[in-house]
Design goal:
Blueprint (H helix, E strand, L loop, with lengths): L1 H7 L13 H6 L7 H7 L10 E5 L3 H17 L8 E5 L3 H4 L5 H4 L7 H8 L5 E5 L11 E6 L7 E5 L13 E3 L3 H10 L4 E3 L5 H9 L5 E5 H6 L8 E3 L13 E6 L3 H10 L2 H16 L8 E8 L2 E9 L6 E8 L4 H12 L23
Parallel strand pairs: 1-2, 1-3, 6-7, 6-8
Antiparallel strand pairs: 3-10, 4-10, 5-8, 5-9, 11-12, 12-13
Length: 366
């Protein structure tokens, strides 16, 4: 893992539009033959002897998402069945440093940079991510052209002591590693206390059972993917807790010059999910957001129209600003970007101070 980090620290990151539309995917360097060319020749580049290598984190949720990707690849491409896809577990710094809040040690990239390194070193062919863990900007030489169909995006409240946040008595402790959740909780329930609470789903549930906190919150999507919905005390509707950017979406990354992987992922991509995720990530990019900034956003396509709602807040919930936009799905990135730009005037240099740590975080450039 240490060698991964030393290489990761030198990754070149492109600060350009974080989304990639289908037109740009089609224009990417096609230095390697496409699947169609291999099919015409009567052979394919991947098989049991030379499998498509999936890179993933090792948490139970990450592995569930990698296995879903493997299943979809085998269904779409029969030649990959019977050993044509392998799963390669890569340890990340975010998985190892569970005692420190993400805001203090670098944010979202701690869950992805080691995977980026293995991808660029051609140790894996594709990487599977929870989209809400993916930084706004990708390393040079990589692309994220595929989102699988989105799961339920809502959060859940879990407690052995109350049926909802509103039922918790004053002074109750809620465990959460998310500044987004923290800010929205404290905005409505300032009498509660929110503490850093990291680890995979199983670890957090064990800590809750041991009485470390009175309640916690998780993404419903993760519980569903691991068949653990029974642990949810209450499903929280979006008007009470707006989800994280890209919550519930799986994203798959590959090298920009790997045409075979691009072809595989084109077959797996779910256009509606990709459109909504692109809108939300454009909003995030406009605000230059990451795990150190309480930002939420949700895009939906209803009756052919894209509806977006976004939010930015101080970590302590004392200020919270929202924006609502709608328009054509073809304008998804523009809608998200303009929604973020609308909120920028509300952000000053003190807006992203992490409470308790007195760490001043750089405000977005207006």
């Amino acid at each position: 893992a240490s060698s991964h980090r030393s290489v990761a620290s030198s990754l070149s990151v492109r600060k350009v539009a974080p989304q990639v539309g289908s037109a740009r995917v089609a224009r990417l360097a096609c230095r390697r033959p496409s699947l169609a060319a291999f099919a015409e020749a009567g052979e394919y580049p991947h098989s049991k002897e030379n499998p498509v290598r999936i890179g993933t984190r090792g948490s139970p949720l990450a592995l569930a998402q990698a296995h879903e990707t493997k299943r979809r690849l085998e269904e779409a491409f029969p030649h990959l069945r019977d050993g044509g896809v392998s799963i390669n577990v890569i340890s990340t710094e975010g998985d190892e440093r569970l005692d420190i809040a993400l805001a203090e040690i670098g944010g979202k990239g701690l869950f992805t940079k080691e995977l980026d390194v293995q991808l660029l070193l051609n140790k894996v062919d594709i990487c599977v991510h929870s989209m809400k863990d993916v930084p706004t900007y990708l390393p040079e030489g990589t692309i994220l052209p595929c989102n699988l169909p989105r799961e339920d995006t809502r959060d859940v409240f879990i407690s052995n002591k109350a049926k909802s946040l509103a039922d918790l008595p004053p002074g109750s402790v809620v465990g959460s590693a998310s500044l987004r959740r923290q800010s929205q909780i404290l905005a409505k329930y300032p009498e509660l206390k929110v503490v850093n609470f990291r680890g995979n789903v199983q670890t957090r549930l064990k800590k809750l059972g041991d009485g470390v906190v009175d309640a916690t919150m998780l993404a419903l999507a993760g519980l569903k993917r691991m068949d653990m919905e029974e642990h949810a005390t209450q499903i929280i509707e979006q008007d009470e807790m707006l989800p994280a950017i890209s919550q519930g979406a799986i994203g798959i990354q590959c090298r920009t010059n790997d045409q075979a992987s691009l072809d595989y992922l084109a077959a797996l991509n779910h256009p509606e999910t990709k459109t909504c995720v692109d809108c939300e990530r454009a909003f995030l990019a406009a605000l230059d957001g990451n795990c150190r900034t309480p930002i939420a956003g949700q895009a939906k396509i209803i009756d052919g129209k894209l509806h977006f709602r976004g939010l930015i807040a101080r970590p302590d919930g004392t200020d919270l600003f929202e924006v609502v936009r709608e328009g054509s799905p073809e304008d998804a990135e523009k809608i998200g970007r303009e929604a973020g730009e609308f909120l920028l005037p509300n952000v000053d240099e003190t807006f992203f101070i992490v409470p308790g740590n007195e760490v001043k975080l750089e405000a977005p450039t207006k």
